[in-house]
């Protein structure tokens, strides 16, 4: 298993990500829209969580990807402490697993990569 | 889930350095290389021609109620700052379960007529209990 990497995504970072990515889905920045969708608060973009996963892969020395495939399994809220975990499942074939969970072990994102 | 392959939209976007740097800054990548990050397709889409408004309009989704269920990228050839990418988005499935609508999208990204990346995603329209 790779060394887990801790990540905390703030409301400010969500706003910056919305501007940088162009993903202005209001459930990420407008609490009223979040409630309309049945959420208790604004949530982090799944794509920002996925991007933090790709940054973790880089830190683990994986530079070039052939495939990156994830499911967003639970909502990620601002200021939740997250841990990105990963491991090789078949080192020779360049295949591995990646997941993001919070301190309570709730899995936010789970998937696979091929380097 | 219905199986279909309906073209929804096409757009062309040239990757510019400022937008690449903005994304890298937010996700904590600070190298000097001109290879774009693995999730850069979001910028190609949302800034390049498939804005959030356009997307929800094409899917007939309430823009306040859109969730991202899954995302897959297949990287065929590296993509660099300065590349001009032509994207074609297809609706490949749609289903409704317990008041939630799921759609599957496939986007093919071409450079000079050659496919360099494929995205497959699931988007969900979820209306909460207090939806009005």
TrEMBL record, chain A:
GO biological processes: fatty acid biosynthetic process
GO molecular function, one term: fatty acid synthase activity
Domain of life: Bacteria
Residues forming coiled coils: none
Annotated InterPro entries: Fatty_acid_synthase, HotDog_dom_sf, MaoC-like_dom
GO cellular component assignments: fatty acid synthase complex
MaoC-like domain residues: 6-104
Name of the molecule in the record: MaoC-like domain-containing protein
Organism: Domibacillus antri
From TrEMBL, chain B:
Listed Pfam families: FAS1_DH_region
Entry coiled-coil feature ranges: none
Gene3D superfamilies in the cross-refs: Hotdog Thioesterase
Domain called FAS1-like dehydratase: residue spans: 34-117
Name this polypeptide is given: FAS1-like dehydratase domain-containing protein
Organism field: Domibacillus antri
Phylogenetic placement of the source organism: Bacteria, Bacillati, Bacillota, Bacilli, Bacillales
